[in-house]
Every structure is written in C-alpha cells, then in structure tokens.
Fold:
Amino acid sequence: MCGIVGYTGHREAYPIIIKGLKRLEYRGYDSTGVALNNGSGLNVYKKKGKVAELEEAVIGKDLHAHIGIGHTRWATHGEPSDRNAHPHQSASGKLAMIHNGIIENYTQLKKELISKGYYFESDTDTEVLLNFIEEIRKNNQCDLEEAVRIALKRVTGAYVILLIDEDDPATIIAARKGSPLVIGIGKGEHFLGSDASPMLEYTKEVVYVNDYELAIVKPDELILKNLGNEKLTPYVQKLDLELAAIEKGGYEHFMLKEIVEQPQTIYDCLRGRLDPIEGTITMSGIQQYAEQIMNANRIVIVACGTSWHAGLVAEYIFEELCRINVEVEYASEFRYRNPVINKGDVILAISQSGETADTLVAIENAKSKGAILLGVVNVVGSSIARTSHAGAYTHAGPEIGVASTKAFTAQLAVLTMIALKIGYLKGSIPQERYMNLLNELQQVPEKVAWILKHSAPIKAMAEKYKDARDFLYLGRGYNFPVALEGALKLKEISYIHAEGYPAAEMKHGPIALVDDQLPVVFVATRDAYHEKVMSNMQEIKARKGKLIAVITEGDTATAELCDDYIEVPEADEIVAPMLSVVPLQLLAYYIGVAKELDVDKPRNLAKSVTVE
Ligand code: M6R
Structure:
C-alpha cells in the first residue's frame, strides 16, 4: 500500500510526480504529499484526501524544482490527516522522507529519540525512522547514505523509503525491504516508483530494486549498494508495458474496463500455451518442475482475497484432474502457524500484484523449509514472481481497479492449464476428457464475450437491489468459491454487507437471516450439484427471500424459481467459474455506481497490500 514517486533530472519534477501519483492512487488514497527541493530549500505540501485535492491546495505555491518525492497514503499509523500525510520532515527541517511499509519497532526507537529531546508532529512510524536517521547522521558525523544504512540495520519491518536532503538538490536516497521499488533510467534523469507506471512515457529501461538494497540516485548516476556498503551492478530490464494499458480507454471506471477486457485477457493468457488441436499445453516454468508436481504429496496454495478464491477453485480442479491432495491457506494465517512442510510439498502462491506482504512472507518461510515454490502472478518482475522457483504469469495486463476482476479469471485460466498439464502427464485424466477440456478452455473467451453482450439486465437489477442492507451468495462445488468472490466484490464496491456460503451449509445458520428483504444470489449453473442447488433455492423461496441466480442459458426450470436471473452459456463445470463470476462482477459494479460510490477506489482499501 502507499504509492511512492521520485524524480531527479532536468525536467520540472512536480508535474511528473503528480501524474505518477495519480497512476499509483490505486495503492492508497487517503492523503497525498510532495516534497520539492529548488536549490534554496525544501517545499513540502501535503493534504488529507486524493491527489486532486492536493493539486487544488498548491495552486499559487512555489512548485519549481528538478528533484522531488511524492506519496499517496494508505494509513497504518495515525488517521488520515494533513499532519500524518507524507512526506515528513526531520526535526531540523533539512530532510524529507516518504515511506511505504511499517516500521515494527518504531515505539522503541521513538522512546530513544524522545529521551534525546525529539518531539513528533505526526503519529507515524515514518517520522520516527526519519528522525532516527537524522540523529545517526548528527551523532556519527556521517553522510546521509551512511546514516540510512546504519538506521536500516536497526529497523524491523517493511519499507521502501525515499529521502531528499535540503543541502543536496540532486540526490534521492532510496532503500527497500519487503515493499516494491522500481527505478527508471532516462537520459540525465531518473524516475522512482512503487511500480513502473509513473515512468512509462519517459523510459522503458528499469531496475527492480531488491530487498536490503540501497540506491543513491542522481540525474546522471545510479549507484546500487547492499546494506554492507558493497556496490552492486544494477540489472537493467526492458519494460513490456504500454501507456494505453494503464489508461481508462473511454470507460467510466477502470473496474468496468477490466471486466469488459476479460475475453481478451483470458485469450492472452491461453495464447501460445493451449493448443486443442495438438492436444498440448506449453508452460515452460511448470514443465521444469512437472516431475516434482506430479509426485507431490500435496500442493499447498497460499493467497489472499480474490486470489485465495481462485485457489479454492483450483483445489477442486487439481483434486479432480490430478488426484493430488490440495490445501488452500490464507497466507496471513499460514505464515504464522509454523506449518508442517515436508520434502515433496509444492507451495503454490497466487497473487495479482505479486507484492502482497502476507503471501510473500508465507512463501519465503516455506522456501526456507525446502518446499518447491510455484507462483501464479500477474505483475511481471514482482517480488512473488522473483521469489518463486518457477510458475506462470497470468498476462492479464495492469489491473488498476482496486476490486480484482480480470486477474481472477486469468488466474483460473492459468490454474486450469496447470492442472490439465499435470493431470495429463500423470495419466489421471482420461484422454477424451482431457481433449474435451482443452476445447472447453479455448471457448471461454467467446463465452465471456457472450455474457457481456447480454449483460444489460444486470444494470436494472442493480437499481432494484441497491438499497438492500445485506446479501447472501450461495453456490456448491466449483461455484462455491464463485459465491464467495461475488460477495467480496459486492462488499468492496457497494459497502453492502454480503456473505458467501456453501449453498447446503446455509441451513446450519445463515438461513436465519432470510426474510422478504434479503436478496440471495445463487450461482446455479447446470453441473453435478444442480438438482441439490435447486432444492436450496426452494428453501430460500419458502422463506420469501429474494432469489437472484446465475443460471445456464435456456434453463427455464431454474429461471422460473427466481425473482431475477442472469444467463451464462453452457460449459463444463471445470471452466464454469470463469463464466459465472462475470455477472457477479457486473452486479457489484452497477450497484456501486447506482449508489454513486467511487468504485475504483473504495473506502479503506488499497490495491496492493504490502503491509501485513
Ligand atoms: O495482489 P494479490 O492478488 O495478492 O491481492 C490479494 C488481495 O489483496 C486482493 O485480491 C483483494 O482481496 C482485492 N481487493 C479483491 O478484489
């Protein structure tokens, strides 16, 4: 969480920083700030609220500078306020710093500093770290770089920090542990960002900074060091990302754009991998570890949020097609549980951002215990991708809307391909079913396009149900995780309380909620459990709940039971979640829009959860 941007070079820094912050707003948006050094001192401007609010507040101020840092915040320590917004300034006023992450031992450091006479303007851990650095510089009579290095050796937690010094109007000092940092290399200029989006129109050459590295960034020079002060050679990579991919392209919201993109993103994910004519799936990362996966005692899937829901679908698919025991774990629980990991276990991390702190630490722990790590990740070059032994990218393109949509369907496409490949190699899928499933997978993009084309009634449904206080989402089998995902989407976007449940389990408690005011959304496409799901629907109807269902096209018997329904094309149950989730994404989207909420930036959330 939190977006950070930095610039040093020959251009005006402020416009570059502001544009970059707008692109990073998905990471946090409760306050914004910039610090600029125009050679005669630091100008720090910060404000509670989104970037646009800062822009208004600085009209008429001195914004001239060729070096600067900017921050968009997702609050951890201290409420969102002008006072707690970054950048923070050191007690002397000479240093300004922005930070993404959490300094866990900040209370202890703060006590030490208070005993030395320091006082603090904000409630943040960032201001503590900054003054700790300043104190070291003063005490040790060293330069800023050295002070940062010494300070970071004392710090526990996660951070990316960018610092500028009033007395050095060319240099940004940056360091990273556990949160992402990209440095873009231009001609006589450098750009820094939480991801590459702030620098896309200026350079395609980037360096991903690793944990425990420190960068000294000047217009003409980039020096990378470890915390032991040894110089490292920056590994320069070419970005394969176009500006258009991070723009709205005429849509009102990123979320809608990303939902609508799904036929293409699923196609991109399958392209070059799936060949239903030859009967092959080409995934080199998986091929490399195919033996180990086939012979794994179990596969442990670790993920959070929507990615965890994709993991649940994968559990059903892997067990069915590969006959391998699968466990799906919340990364945040798994990392602290001292889990039993045996030789031969495969850990599969799923993450859109590739930066989710809990998932990253969970797999690092498992790696240290000798597990094989596979990553199913969207963001190329991200920390989880780099930590994994192998894996497969989802190729969904940048997902900017905070609510994950196209990443989920791309994750399902990749996970299904992995299961098919392993099941085929292992001989646990009959040949005919294998070939049939390859064809089913191939047809998913056009079926999703069909759903989008027939989605107009969802908007009207959103109007009808937008004032409901609660929603229940129910499904069985492969559609149970889809129900969870539908409920998550709704609560994120509309702030309506929504619960997802296995349809049969509903009788063991949630049915008490049902009355004539409660919309109950069933994911009721035709599959092995369909008759049973229909019985569950009858149970809700008998208690006067409002029945909404995602059903298979032409299933009039189920349609007749419902107050409202949305059709999706017939499909094998293994690929069905990629279809049935789409109407639920749209329902959440349109309810959020009908309630006039900021669907791309829902309150309290951030796209990339880089703190635990
Ligand atoms: O980037 P990741 O897939 O690791 O993120 C995991 C969750 O934080 C994410 O899916 C979150 O739940 C989304 N807001 C869901 O829409």
The mean pLDDT is 94. The pocket of 5-amino-5-deoxy-1-O-phosphono-D-mannitol is lined by residues 304-307, 351-353, 356, 359, 402-404, 488, 492, 605, 608-609 (CB under 6 Å).
